Amino acid sequence: MTPESEDFMVGEPPDGPPWPVEFLADLHAGLYPDNPDLLGRVYADPEACRVLESLEQVADDLRRLGRPPLGD
Question: In 3-state terms, what secondary structure has residue 31?
Fold first, then answer.
């Protein structure tokens, strides 16, 4: 699903930290447009970085298994 999809509407990003895990998953999946200010605030939070690193590890594991990650 892409941000342009008519069936899905991404809301405003939450104020954080703390950042909801659901938001971080959506951000990792590319559902939010690139926003340097938002990304800077997210990456300044160590807990958010741990969640994003975990999500990336899962995506890497899926690629190694030969299964495309969701959204590809």
Answer: coil
